[in-house]
Amino acid sequence: MQPAKTTVMALLEKLPDDCSLEDVLYHLYVIQKIEAGLAEADAGKLIPHEEVAKELRRKWVTGAA
Prior knowledge:
Elements: H1 4-14, H2 21-42, H3 49-62
């Protein structure tokens, strides 16, 4: 994982010059969520695909929350 300053600078280089502050904040939010997900995966906090599919099917069929 890169230092936050490096991440922000790289993002600003990629975004168009006419982007809004809202665009910048949205992209930073997405980056933050991706990094959090990767950290959880590295820590072994994963749910097997089969378990997720089974739960989704149960919710779709029964309408349970």
